[in-house]
Specification:
This protein is an alpha+beta fold. The chain has 4 domains: about 130 residues, Arc Repressor Mutant, subunit A, CATH 1.10.10; about 100 residues, Orthogonal Bundle (Arc Repressor Mutant, subunit A); about 50 residues; about 90 residues, no CATH class. Helices cover about 55% and strands about 10% of the residues. Helix 2 packs across helix 5, helix 12 packs across helix 13 and helix 12 packs across helix 14. The termini are far apart.
């Protein structure tokens, strides 16, 4: 039986050890980790034990449902490999009342096969998930569809932080340095507050508030000392939202998107485009992103997809594809015609060879007198080409085996 079982508690609490972490990873890697936390709790609550090596398994179908698209196995492997290399720091209260700072990993081990992903999480995170009372569970408070709709790393992190504190309508106060650490920023990243505010605070907050499906609105509150910003917290207001994609038709048009496309945008695209154009748009955007990556340039897939759909990249891509397919079909048709001609010639030669062998065998079956009569007829026919007459007479004196050679065997067939 699994030793990790939820502890009874009448006190509502959120797993702070999971909230206050360094987010030094991509948003997709972060989402994989959140998926594993969600999945491990469900597995344990359902009584599903890990295998003998400690692995729990989640199917690719289930991962795809969370992300809204089907990720490539090679990319999942690469992301989990990176996720395993990241460390996480958190505070614990020891038995003697002393605080201790612990260094751990986000992921102990992972395996990727054709149909499922295996993972081993640190026990402290599993226990933190199980300790949370169901009513305040972060996965009850956090609407996955909304969280997954954010394509920017910092808006997803801020959204999750605010959802964890939605009940008290504000997040804890953090100094600028604490907030930088919370986001997982390196010293050289956004070192000037103006850049930090624009990319990591104001723009993400604006995107959350402008999102058609976000269920909260937030406002950042700064603490100033003179003209300098010393710290901040977020004020939170709940919004009663009815998600506008309940009637989204079942489609696989977005399966090859490498980052999540918000469901509200999927619905908009489906209303204005055929599925074939949507698929073509995503394929063209993926090719463009791969080209940028090969050139060692940054490829922001979320922005690329928006540009691709806005400019209808799929239309020209389909036209080019149709042209290429036509050229390919013509090339295949020409190659098939050449093969058919070659086969016809080969069949003809084989047939002629069979006829020649049959004529020679018939000739050999004749009596010597009959053979000589046939040879006389052939010699008479060859008078039209004096060159062959001399050669024919010379070979006739040497024996009759030459009759199987061209051009004499051709003449032989005429008289048999």
């Amino acid at each position: 039986m699994n030793k990790l079982i939820p502890k009874k508690s009448s006190k509502l609490k959120t797993p702070q050890s999971l909230i206050h972490i360094n987010h030094n990873m991509t948003i997709l890697q972060y989402k994989y980790w959140i998926i594993f936390l969600h999945h491990i709790k469900k597995q344990i609550m359902d009584g599903v034990e890990a295998d003998k090596n400690g692995y729990q398994y989640i199917s690719f179908d289930e991962i795809s449902k969370f992300l809204g698209y089907t990720p490539k196995k090679s990319e999942v492997y690469a992301d989990l490999k990176r996720l395993r290399s990241y460390s996480v720091e958190y505070n614990v209260l020891e038995k003697d009342g002393e605080k201790a700072k612990v260094i751990d990993g986000f992921l102990y081990s992972a395996s990727v096969s054709s149909k499922r992903v295996g993972y081993v999480l640190p026990p402290v995170f599993i226990q933190a998930m199980l300790d949370v009372d169901e009513k305040s569970n972060i996965f009850q408070l956090l609407n996955w569809e909304i969280f997954n709709s954010f394509s920017g790393k910092y808006e997803a992190i801020i959204y999750k932080l605010c959802k964890d504190y939605e009940g008290v309508k504000r997040t804890p106060y953090m100094t600028v340095d604490e907030f930088r650490e919370y986001l997982g920023l390196k010293d050289e990243e956004y070192s000037q507050f103006k850049a930090l505010n624009r990319s990591c605070i104001s723009n993400p907050v604006k995107k959350i508030n402008e999102s058609l499906i976000s269920d909260i609105s937030i406002k950042v509150m700064f603490e100033k000392e003179g003209r300098s910003i010393k710290g901040l917290y977020f004020g939170i207001e709940s919004k009663q939202m009815s998600l506008p994609f309940d009637d989204l038709p079942q489609t696989k048009a977005f399966d090859f998107a490498k980052v999540s496309i918000p469901l509200v945008e999927q619905k908009k695209y489906l209303e204005t485009m055929e599925e074939v154009e949507i698929i073509a748009t995503i394929e063209r955007a993926n090719e463009y992103a791969e080209t940028l990556t090969k050139q060692e340039k940054k490829a922001n897939l979320g922005a690329i997809y928006k540009k691709a759909f806005s400019d209808r990249w799929g239309v020209q891509y389909l036209e080019n594809k149709i042209l290429k397919d036509k050229e390919l079909e013509e090339k295949k048709a020409k190659q098939l015609q050449i093969k058919q001609i070659e086969k016809a010639e080969k069949d003809k030669m084989e047939k002629e060879q069979e006829a020649s062998e049959e004529a020679v065998n018939k000739f050999k079956a004749l009596s010597e007198i009959e053979q000589e009569k046939i040879l006389d007829k052939i010699e008479e026919k060859l008078q039209e080409t004096p060159f062959f007459v001399k050669d024919f007479n010379k070979k006739r004196e040497e024996g009759k085996e030459f009759i199987s050679l061209p051009p004499y065997v051709f003449e032989l067939k005429r008289f048999l």
